[in-house]
Structure formats: structure tokens, C-alpha cells
């Protein structure tokens, strides 16, 4: 399966940008955010091995042979593009595992708790990959509108084709595992998801504001509830099916609104810009 899903070859990519200043001004920070998140796949792999010491073979194969090689290449290509535009390279955090995860890792050695951790990981994967699908579609559209066809076709176009496969893996895995969980495990997943949800790549206030800026540039900030619905559709169906009429889990809406608000607040306090 690995070579059916090769990472994007670097020599298939064309970094030609006709109007680098304009392109950088509009999308530079989006490229930086996405490059960082893609490159942080190496930390995600560390997290998986901490949280899930004993993954099913299908998962191990997906992480090692498909997902990590593809994502790291997305990150390297986007990072090279932003450097070509005169920006600093992304500063991914590839090796720090938070205390929260270490505790989870310890508890994950109990088999019934390991399934709770796996479920949380699949839910995060679904929201992350769905966010990537939406974001790359919008970035592709914006890049095309600017007439930057080389970037649109050979970079964003190629990357965006690989994201739906990642989403499919997490969705199938989440559906299958949810069916197997007992009542207390489901209760635990709901509780932990509610207290730990954050937008992809947003681990502190500055990164949340960065995410809010990305939402604004891609036109998601004003349609935050549609975006929230898209990234949490299956999660709502699985975890919150009994809450009829609930369109989006409230913790998703709250987290996205917080990102938008932090970005707006920072824009009014220029000295807080990094
Ligand atoms: Fe990616
Ligand atoms: Fe992905």
C-alpha cells in the first residue's frame, strides 16, 4: 500500500510565483501555519507511541508508511515555498510531549483505557484532516484567483488530493472503534474530548490567534459555524447522537470563536505581534 501513496516528489513541484510580494502578503502566514502543522507530524508520531504503545497493525502501517511520509513532505514543500517568498522557515515543535499526554500514556497501558485514548486520537485525526481538506481547498481557490497557477497546481493541488485519504482513515477507524466501546468508555471519551479539544496546531494563545488569522484570510472566520459543522460532523453523530438538534458540539464552536477573538484582539495590539 505504501508505494500506492507516494509522498509528493520534490521534482514534481514548481515554485514559480509571479507576484511574490502580493502573494506573500496575502498567504504567507497561511503557508507558515500549515507548514508548521504538517512538520509537527513527527511529534504526533511520538504522541501516538506514547499514548498507544500497542497499536493495531493497520494503524501502525498507516502512520508509518502512508501518513507520516506524506505529511512531512507537505510540510517541507510548503516551508520551502515560504522561504522562497523571503519568509523565515516554520518553527515546528517536533519533540515535546505535554504532561497531559504523559499521564494519558501511563493510563493507556490499561487495555480498556487504551481504547479510550485511541478513540480520542481518531477524533483529533478526523477534525484535523477535515480542517486540512477545507483549508487547502480554499487556499487552492485563492491561489488560482491570484493567477499563481504553478503553486495552485503543483503544490496546493497535489497536497489537497492526499488529505481526503487521511480523513477517510480516521473516519473509518473512529466509526469502527466507537461501536466496540462500552458505556463507561464512551462517557470517558465525551468527557475528555470536551476538556481537550483545540483547533489543529493551536496549542497556546499565540497559536490560537495565528489560527484565527488563517481563518480570516481563508474566509472561514465569518462562516465559523459552517466550518465547525464540517470538521465535527461525524464526531457529533457518534458522540452526541442523543442530543437531537445539536448542530455542532459546543466545545468546537467555543474554541473556534476563541481563535477568531484572539486574532482580532492581537490585531489591535500590534506590539504583541511576534
Ligand atoms: Fe498534509
Ligand atoms: Fe493529512
Which segments are poorly predicted (pLDDT under 50) over 5 or more consecutive residues?
A: none
CATH class: Mainly Alpha
- What distance separates the N and C termini? 42 Å
Overall shape: globular
Bound molecules: fe (ii) ion
Cα-atom radius of gyration: 19 Å
E-strand count: 0
Could you say which structural class the secondary elements and strand pairing correspond to?
mainly alpha
Domains (count): 1
One letter per element, helices H and strands E, the order comes to: HHHHHHHHHH
What proportion strand? under 5%
- Corresponding CATH architecture: Orthogonal Bundle
CATH topology-level name: Ribonucleotide Reductase, subunit A
What does this molecule look like?
This protein is an all-alpha fold. Helices cover 72% and strands 0% of the residues. It has one domain (18-90, 98-268): Orthogonal Bundle (Ribonucleotide Reductase, subunit A). It has helices spanning 20-39, 41-51, 57-84, 99-107, 111-145, 149-180, 183-196, 205-218, 224-239, 250-267. The longest helix has 35 residues, at 111-145. The termini are far apart. One fe (ii) ion (FE2) is lined by residues 38, 71, 74, 132, 159, 163. One fe (ii) ion (FE2) binds at residues 71, 129, 132, 163, 166. One of its GO terms (molecular function) is oxidoreductase activity. It comes from Nocardioides flavescens. This is GTP-binding protein LepA.
